[in-house]
Amino acid sequence: MALAVALTGAPAQAAAAPGAPGIGDPYFPDYGNGGYDVSHYDIRVRYHPGADVLTGTTTILARASQDLSSFNLDFALNVTSIKVNGWTATYARQGDHEVVVTAPRPISRNQFLTIVVQYEGVPSEVVAAGYTAWTKTSDGALAIGQPEIAWWWYPSNDHPRDKATHDISVLVPDGVEVLSNGVMPRAPRAEIPGWTRWSWRSTRPMASYLAFMAIGQYEIVTDTAPNGLPVINAYSENLAEYATSARASIERTSEVVEWAEGIFGPYPFEAMGGVAVAPSTIGFALENQTRSTYAAEFFRRGSDPYVVVHENAHQWFGDSVAVDTWQDIWLNEGFASYAEWLWSEYTGEGTADELFEFYYNLYPVTSSFWTVKPGDPGPPNIFHPAVYDRGAMAVHQIRLAMGDNAFFALLKAWTSARKDGNGNIAQLQALAEAISGRDLDAVFTTWLYTPTKPALGLAGAAAARSAGPTATRTEPKSFQKINAVHQELANKNW
């Protein structure tokens, strides 16, 4: 009788339900998935460069955040089998990048999950979201893209809200190099006749779009940074006339990071470096965690430290502190662009005031540039030049409104408090107001959310202090370099 009473009084368990097909991003509703949180990806792939054939097994360690009857994975290649906690699961494709996995046994909230997915395909032939992010090259391939790339080489919960650590292991023909994130826990080694396995490990949580592979013929250069961390740079053997200027830029990575630590706080990851890819391969640079990747064309006019500054600033703003939703992209691009202005000040090539004045005058009031709101650019415009250029102008206006002491305290407080996590614009504004003791709503609203060219008030006028007549001004020395970076970024080939 006592047992019966206890059972009668027990709360009823919630019924198992499918996990949501999206994580809740207002711009990309079906990106990411609900019902579980990933802690680690173990990715093992074999790649045949000539045929562009990829076969792989990815093991996902996760925890259920609800009672689940099914859940989704973001993935575009052909799946051959899925097991959940050792049991064979059924699955079905839904759309071009969703795989719906039906649980072979009930999954309870907080239950640990080991999800093993086997797959194969020719990534360059797979179209999802209207394009192919995977790039086949003459000597291998590049798995690099934003906001999507994982779909073409490993199944994931593909949204910055669900970060995880990564082990990435790639089997390629002997003589082919593989670059990826983090450090190499072991040297490349022969595993079967004619094939070599490359292993990479990321020990800090990483958004899935920041995981990358560069496969092909690369010269790898290693060193140790002043902060004691390993530096791993790589240069395509097909760089031709871009080789020396690429090296003169990317080999300054540890110098740039040391400078940035003084502004943003301690470097947040276990390694650093960069990869220069062959000409006519990609049309952008991307801040892959610990190892930014650069199109050769960034260096066609000579060395370009500004793109190195931009991508390494993202290690704090974008990688360590990721966007909460893709609407918050200004937190990535506005601050990385402004880091270029700070580097320009540091090297004596033009002050942030001068750069603000130049960019403000560059776009006439009638330009459609001003109609894009950096704080809410809309899905088609997340990489619009306004997110970068007006985004940097917005950061400068926030600096002027806060004062330098409070502004630079904000940069370190933001990257420290949200390390390995996420943030949104409202949270940044709240922190800025708490640190400065000032109401900053007008400056945030004007520069991030108003679709017209802002008029310059007293704070904005500080950008022209001691400048003299605009007609007699010459552009800052850094402008040509910085503008080239933004032009390349504006021409991204997603």
Note the topology.
Elements: H1 2-9, E1 17-18, E2 36-48, E3 53-64, E4 68-74, E5 78-84, E6 87-88, E7 90-94, E8 98-107, E9 112-121, E10 135-136, E11 141-143, E12 164-173, E13 177-179, E14 189-192, E15 195-206, E16 213-216, E17 218-224, E18 230-236, H2 243-250, H3 253-264, E19 274-276, E20 285-286, E21 292-294, H4 305-313, E22 321-323, H5 330-347, H6 352-362, H7 385-402, H8 404-417, E23 421-423, H9 425-436, H10 441-449, H11 458-461, H12 479-490
Helix pairs in contact: 3-4, 4-5, 5-7, 6-7, 7-8, 7-10, 8-9
Describe the structure.
The protein is of the alpha+beta class and 494 residues long. Among the domains are: 16-130 and 146-173, tricorn interacting facor f3 domain (Immunoglobulin-like, Sandwich); 322-490, Neutral Protease Domain 2 (Neutral Protease, domain 2, Orthogonal Bundle), CATH 1.10.390.10. It contains 12 helices and 23 strands. Helix 6 (352-362) packs across helix 7 and helix 8 (404-417) crosses helix 9 (425-436). The longest helix is centred in the C-terminal third of the chain and has 18 residues, at 330-347.
Give structural attributes.
494 residues, alpha+beta, Immunoglobulin-like, Neutral Protease, domain 2, eight-stranded mixed β-sheet, 12 helices, globular, disordered C terminus, alanyl aminopeptidase activity, metal-binding, Peptidase_M1_aminopeptidases, metalloprotease, EC 3.4.11.2
